Amino acid sequence: MTALLSVEGVSKRFRGLLAVDKVTFQVARGSIFAVIGPNGAGKTTLFNIIAGMFAPDRGSVAFAGERIEALAPDEICRRGIGRTFQLVRPFPALTVEDNVVIGAMLRRHDPAGARRHAHEVLARLDLFGKRHQPASALTLPDRKRLEVARALATDPKLLLLDEVMAGLRPAETDRMVSALTQLNREFGLTILLIEHVMRAVMALAARVLVLHHGAAIAEGAPEAVVREPAVIQSYLGAEAVE
Amino acid sequence: MSARLLEGVSRRGIALLAVLLAVLLAVPWIANDYLLTVLIIALYSAYTGQAWNVMMGFAGQLSLGHAIYVGLGAYAAAALYVHFGIAPWLGLAAAIAIAVACGAIIGFLAFRFGVGGVYFAILTIAFAEFARIGFDHFQWVGASSGFFLPVANYTRNDLWNLRGDPTMFYYVMLALTVAAFALCHVLLKSRIGYYWLAIREDEIAARSLGIDTFRYKMYAAVLSAGMTAVAGVFFAFYYNNLFPEQVFHISRSIELILGPIIGGIGTLFGPLIGAFLLTSLSEAMQELLSALGFDAPGVKQVFYGLCLLVVVIALPGGVWPWLAGKLHVTRRDP
Amino acid sequence: MAAEIYLNVAVSGLLTGLVYGLMAVGLSVIFGVVRVVNFAHGEMMTVAMYLAIALFNSLGLDPLVMAVPVAGALFALGYVMQAGLINPFITRPEYSQFMLLIAVAIIIVNVLLIVFGPDARNVQTSYAFDSFLLGPLIIDATKVYAGGATLVITAALFAFFRFAPLGKAIRACADNYTGALVVGLNVKRLYALTFGLGAACVGAAGSILVLLVDVTPALGPALTLLAFIIVITGGLGSMVGAVLGGLLIGFTEAMAGLFFTPSAKSMFSFGLLVLVLLFRPQGILGKRVL
Known about the structure:
The complex is a heterotrimer. Chain A is 36% helix and 26% strand. Chain A is α/β, with parallel strands linked by helices. Chain A has a domain at 3-80 and 156-241: P-loop containing nucleotide triphosphate hydrolases (Rossmann fold, 3-Layer(aba) Sandwich). By secondary structure, chain B is mostly helical. In chain B, strands 1-2 form a two-stranded antiparallel sheet. In chain C, strand 1 and strand 2 (137-140) form a beta hairpin. By secondary structure, chain C is an all-alpha fold. The chains are: A alpha/beta, B mainly alpha, C mainly alpha. Chains B and C meet through helix 6, helix 12 and helix 14 of B and helix 4, helix 9 and helix 11 of C.
């Protein structure tokens, strides 16, 4: 297996709280990998470490064979990792189109070329019709799609999605799932996602990592992982396992 | 080039701009000397306001000490002219270089060390004050007694040395202002402009898209400083005297920002509208008050303060966005 | 130079610094609780100073005594400003707030200019030329009284925030806005009260400062800048920090005036500011990290 992303023994402490505890896993090139776990398990902190928002106290992160844990967020994006935020951060005063154009400009310096690429990405995520609307006018599901589109426009090799299904109705979830599946199949885009919505996890992920109190408690195929007692216990409590 | 210049401007907008430009070009033939000087001040305000706008409106950093760049530019070019006979168009290079260095230092300190918001504003005020006191003791350029450029009676306009009648200065300032707006418009439509907008809207999101926010904020700071220094050179050669107490004073910094704030931060035409509004209203008001016998120092500034207050409370985006909406002029201008 | 001169200048600087400290405490209280950056702080202080002078000239009362009613007047001004003008701006973007208060500052400075003119004014009390002798120290009586009055007022302020129910309510607001709302505190009214308190500090400090410094309308912006430097150096949100910052700045400026020319003394404050912003942005005693 060629690992695109390799996380090795990563730990992060915030004052008294050990948010991430010696987490180790690998994401194969071209696969979809999900990280699940109850709230407060350390998933977003792990993401933020991979995305360069802060450095781990211990451990390393390697992308395409190179160490990236000490790099700044913009450098990490330039290396080919795109990300979305749990609480979406569109550029509110700019149009949907301009939002994505800014993403596209990473690889295409001329505005015309960037705009063409932005249109392609918008079409893929079903936002082309709304491209002239200001981002602040969009509904939440549309904003989530915008966030994905914008990150996608940077032509990433690995896409980090932080709870991108949260707040979506089942039909919208399915749309997002099919868009992501298509991107994975057609372009070999590797996807690492944090998710609570099990419907999406089961449909998308080839491999799942379960975090609890910052530590990995299970890893494997989704069907197997969700049946493990430790996993059920972490979500539902010890009584549920009996 | 002309295609890029006019990109994104509706046909109505282009027509209005053309009319405006024609009127401005014709002014010296139809206006008296007094009106000409008022317009020079208005254009100067529009220019410096636009230069400041690059830093605030585009990179989102509030500078309350921008007079430092005017002063540095003014003193640099004036000193080279008086002490070495170097013409202002060459002295410009030194003026810009010094201002750019200063802007780079302030920018570096602020951006590398994460100094933002009110702390950055205070930092800029402190730097300007530092310059004011420093130049008060700088003997080579006259210290607090002032620095004077030789003014003699010229029979014709000397554009190279910027000696001449108000008409010459008017056209110089007009050319500078038009150039500044053209430059900003082109920049806004290019990658750097988009990146500036992204940084202004949400710096963290911008970084996640691969934008090196430090570098682009530095570009804005440095460009803003350089552009402002050019105004300083004009200032020196137009007024022919420089006093640190006046040139670097915080009042200059505040006056500089009134135009763009009232007109509309971050917009292309905000500074222009704001400058013309303020200048014309204040001149009109001064005439009125003189006629009523109310001529006291400070009245004009109270008026400015009230304008600012009204705009901040009632039209937070500035006059231009509100006006543009009414005139249906813009399509997608930032 | 003889050691006595350094000592005298240092003590003199510290005493003046105490008064600046009280001014800065006002700013710290306002920023710490209401989270408003009061760019008109120094200008409000000049209003207090002119008020004290006017009262002295018409009623002949000592500015130290006038500190109380002047503080009261400024309290009212601050309360009205916050309740009437500033409140809606708490949720607006930062620079909007700045511009609002800068506008207020511009108006205050120039109204004072129109009313009082640009000439410097001060107050000559009966004890203006007295001094105390303490070993090698020769200290102006005015400075001693000024410092003493400031200490009393500052101590009263600390006690208020520590022990009075209203003071504790205000601190609660600062620590946790939503929590304060939930507990039923009338936050708007508390904000207005706090701004009024901060203004009252400035009122008292201004009334006292009139004994030490000449006032012109242009003093306003200089005092605003000084107040911010003190607060940033001492630590935003810390009242003790503001007092310490005031002492530090008073001391530095006095010593700088001694070693270099007096007009250059503020350059050292600026240098100090830059260093603090770069290397210890939370200030000496600050709680919030930038």
